[in-house]
Amino acid sequence: MGGNLSSMENAHISSNSSCHILTFHSTAKWKAHFDASKQINKLMVIDFTATWCGPCKQMDPVIQDFAAKYTNVEFIKIDVDELMGVSEEFQVQAMPTFILMKKGKVIDKVLGAKNEKLQKLIEKHLN
Fold first, then answer.
1. How much is the pTM?
2. Residue 10: which of 62, 58, 78, 74 has the closest Cα?
3. How far apart are CA 95 and CA 104, in angstroms?
4. Where is the Thioredoxin domain (predicted)?
5. Label partner for 32 (CA 20 to 30 A): which of 41, 46, 70, 87?
6. Which active-site residues does the annotation give?
7. How far, in Å, are 29, 34, 111, 113 from residue 83 at the CA level?
């Protein structure tokens, strides 16, 4: 269980009232968290973003709303410039890219700022 705690050490949890989005700044911390998540059948939505990306900024409040609404879904934000290896591993080629995962497996993907499509996929995979 110690792996779970250590993966949180360098994860930043940004929150506005009731929403929680994990942001990773270290590949090692991300890998530890990702490995731990393989044991849990919880929907994980990874937001691959960049500080310079306009559509990414446009999606920020949407993701915060989703995180507040879907409290049983884990929302994660990864900056592609900060963790290039992670974005390469997931073959991210456009921003924003949202990858939906369960038990360490990619189950869906949304390219671009398509909040309605993302919401439909979150609802589809909640069960």
1. 0.85
2. 78
3. 21
4. 1-127
5. 70
6. 53, 56
7. 11, 14, 18, 21
